[in-house]
Structure formats: structure tokens, C-alpha cells
């Protein structure tokens, strides 16, 4: 048993206090891992922001789990969920150094790889169910903020704030004292709240603003675009140095600069693009296609009142769109 099992939707993303059945045989071990795979994926993805790196970590988590359950003399794992989460989190932390080195040479702004699923009111069937489970991840805007945390701070924030793990549980996962985990949690929470006060825009409002934004940008309506953009709006465009679908090598700040840049891009490419609305990391967003090929994913961050756009995240790197359809 050497290959990681295929994707299976997890029945729950709740905390680790619920114990799964004890794995006693290879077939059972495979099923137990499959039952927890989406939970592991969501935790690791929120720590790394990359689907490919997350899949690598899951492979590294599966191998010791499979080997342990093949060895007849090894003591059985009484709580597979806790065991798998501990292995996955620590493998993700070890993987973080490689990810950081790779991003040092990345061309232009780096954005998380988008997780695309159906809109909330879209019937969910088949493979779309997996995407819906993965959409339990935090928003694109918050993932960008989490990039500014240390790896340990981010792990603690994700486990505690997103998945509801207690500080004592996190201490066991990380091999740290509960007091050290509480300090990490406090620093991470203060850091995040200082950069992104928590609020949740109504999904219907977010979708309406997204539709108006795309209509104005692709339609060349400067006045409508200026009304939609907040004065302090910032555009992050991740093309990985491989596409002209963005704003260059640095984020673009300010309403006038962002609006004129968007209209310039639309004038060059807009007529060849088709717009499809989907959920991206849990938020109603837009996918742009050129000749049925993914061109960009557009995610908007709104002001607290939901009336204007304060952040635009454009992911156009083809490598990050390979799983989008």
C-alpha cells in the first residue's frame, strides 16, 4: 500500500475531540484516512496556501500512517484523527521552509492558489461536493494576511480560530507547552485583527458587487468603476511572470491608478473573455475564461458596509489555474 487514496469528502470538519474508529487492517486504514482526508487538506491548505504543496504533505502523512497499520507489532492508534492531524501539521511546518525559499524568487505578488467551487445556491453533486468541503477554508483576503505570520503563529491561528482546536490540543500537536501556544495564539490574533477586522459581507451583496465590478471593468465604464472602488483600494495581481493579465510586479494602490489599469487591461483583452461566477475560498467571485481556458480568478474584498471594493485579488498564473474548470 504505497499510493495515497483518492479524494473522499469528509463527513465533518469539527474539532478533534471526536474519535474515529481504530484502524486495525490495511483496508480499514485506507478508509480511515479517506474519511479524514478533506479535514487534513483544509488544515494544511490554510497553512500553506498551495494545492500542490498540500497534496505533497498529504502524501507524506499517508505513508507513515499506511506503514504503521501494516506492521503487526506496532501499537494501534487509538485516535486516528488526532494522529493524522498531528502528522499533517508538523509535515506542513517542515514543508514551509521549502515554500518560503521558492517564493523568494517568485515574480511579482504571490497569492494563494484559489479553491473554486459552486455558488451557495448551486446544487452540489459528485466531485463538486469535494470542492464544497474544501471551501471551508478562510477567505482569500485573510489568507493573504496569514502570509505575514510566522509558521507557528499561522498553525496555531488556523487550528484554533478556523477549526476550533483547544490550546491544550494544539500543544499536543506541536509538542509545545499550553502557555507557549496561548502566547502564539494571542500574537497571531492581534496581528490579524490589526490588519483585517472581522466582518462577513452578505454573500448576495458580494455577488452583486462582483457582477457590477466586472460589468464596469470589462465594459470600460470609468465612472461606474470609480464609484465602486474605495479610495484606498489595492490590486494584487499574481501572474507568476507568465501572463500580462495583471498589474505588474507590485500591488497597485489608489482608486484612480487601479481603475485606469483595469480599463487598460480590459481594452486589450476584455472582448475575448467570458465571465463565470463561482465560489472561491467560500466567497462569491468571478472566473474569466479565454477560449474555454481559465484566464484569471477575480476575488473582491469589500469595505465593512459592503458598498465598495477595497481589495482586488487577481490570480492569473496558469499553474494556479490548472485545476479550474
Helices and strands, with pairings:
Layout: H1 26-48, H2 51-70, H3 80-104, E1 116-117, H4 127-134, H5 140-146, H6 151-162, H7 167-174, H8 178-195, H9 203-219, H10 222-228, E2 229-238, E3 252-253, H11 255-269, E4 273-280, E5 283-290, E6 293-302, E7 309-315
Parallel strand pairs: 2-7
Antiparallel strand pairs: 1-4, 2-3, 4-5, 5-6, 6-7
Helix pairs in contact: 1-2, 1-3, 2-3, 6-8, 7-8, 9-10
Provide an overview of this structure.
Residues 33-98 form the RNA polymerase sigma-70 region domain. Belongs to the sigma-70 factor family. ECF subfamily. With 325 residues, the chain is of the alpha+beta class. The protein is 49% helix and 14% strand. It is built from eleven helices and seven strands. It has helices at residues 26-48, 51-70, 80-104, 127-134, 140-146, 151-162, 167-174, 178-195, 203-219, 222-228, 255-269; strands at 116-117, 229-238, 252-253, 273-280, 283-290, 293-302, 309-315. Strands 1-4-5-6-7-2-3 form a seven-stranded mixed sheet. It is elongated, with a radius of gyration of 21 Å.
Amino acid at each position: 500500500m504505497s499510493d495515497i487514496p483518492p479524494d473522499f469528502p469528509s463527513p465533518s470538519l469539527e474539532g478533534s475531540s471526536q474519535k474515529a474508529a481504530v484502524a486495525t487492517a490495511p483496508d480499514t486504514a485506507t478508509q480511515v484516512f479517506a474519511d479524514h482526508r478533506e479535514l487534513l487538506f483544509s488544515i494544511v491548505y490554510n497553512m500553506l496556501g498551495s494545492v500542490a504543496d498540500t497534496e505533497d504533505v498529504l502524501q507524506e502523512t499517508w505513508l507513515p500512517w499506511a506503514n504503521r497499520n501494516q506492521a503487526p507489532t506496532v501499537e494501534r492508534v487509538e485516535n486516528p484523527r488526532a494522529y493524522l492531524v498531528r502528522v499533517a501539521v508538523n509535515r506542513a511546518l517542515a514543508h514551509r521552509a521549502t515554500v518560503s525559499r521558492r517564493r523568494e524568487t517568485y515574480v511579482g505578488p504571490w497569492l494563494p492558489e484559489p479553491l473554486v467551487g459552486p455558488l451557495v445556491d448551486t446544487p452540489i453533486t459528485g466531485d463538486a461536493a469535494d470542492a464544497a468541503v474544501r471551501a471551508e477554508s478562510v477567505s482569500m483576503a485573510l489568507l493573504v494576511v496569514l502570509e505575514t505570520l510566522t509558521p507557528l503563529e499561522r498553525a496555531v491561528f488556523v487550528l484554533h480560530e478556523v477549526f476550533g482546536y483547544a490550546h491544550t490540543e494544539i500543544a499536543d500537536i506541536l509538542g509545545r507547552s499550553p502557555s507557549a501556544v496561548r502566547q502564539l495564539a494571542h500574537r497571531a490574533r492581534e496581528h490579524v485583527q490589526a490588519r483585517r477586522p472581522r466582518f462577513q459581507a452578505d454573500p448576495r451583496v458580494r455577488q452583486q458587487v462582483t457582477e457590477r465590478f466586472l460589468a464596469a471593468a470589462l465594459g470600460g465604464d470609468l465612472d461606474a468603476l470609480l464609484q465602486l472602488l474605495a479610495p484606498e483600494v489595492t490590486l494584487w495581481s499574481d501572474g507568476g511572470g507568465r501572463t500580462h493579465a495583471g498589474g505588474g510586479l507590485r500591488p497597485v494602490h489608489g482608486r484612480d491608478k487601479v481603475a485606469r489599469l483595469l480599463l487598460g487591461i480590459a481594452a486589450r483583452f476584455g472582448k475575448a473573455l467570458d465571465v463565470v461566477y463561482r465560489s472561491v475560498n467560500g466567497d462569491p467571485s468571478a472566473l474569466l475564461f479565454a477560449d474555454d481556458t481559465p484566464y484569471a480568478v477575480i476575488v473582491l474584498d469589500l469595505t465593512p458596509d459592503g458598498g465598495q471594493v477595497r481589495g482586488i485579488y487577481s490570480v492569473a498564473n496558469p499553474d494556479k489555474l490548472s485545476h479550474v474548470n
